[in-house]
Amino acid sequence: MLFKYVLRFLKNTKGQDLIEYALMAGFVALAAGAIMPGISTDLSTIFSKVSSTMSNAAAS
Q1: What are the residue boundaries of the structural domains of the chain, listed by start?
Q2: Which of 3, 41, 42, 43 shows the smallest number of beta carbons within 10 Å?
Q3: Residue range 10-55, pLDDT digits in tens
Q4: Could you tell me if residue 15 is left (phi over 0), alpha (psi between -120 and 50 degrees) or otherwise beta?
């Protein structure tokens, strides 16, 4: 019985796509920052704004 629950948990892929897209966006941003140093400050500002917005949304 416990085995069935473990298998069901391992097969559950809800939300997996969103995480994969977020990771890919992060990797692309990291690569762009490494290739073009002038963009790294802009990317840092964008990620800081996104982080603070998500923190505020989570606190509400």
Answers
A1: 14-59
A2: 3
A3: 676 666 677 788 888 888 888 887 888 777 788 788 889 988 998 8
A4: left
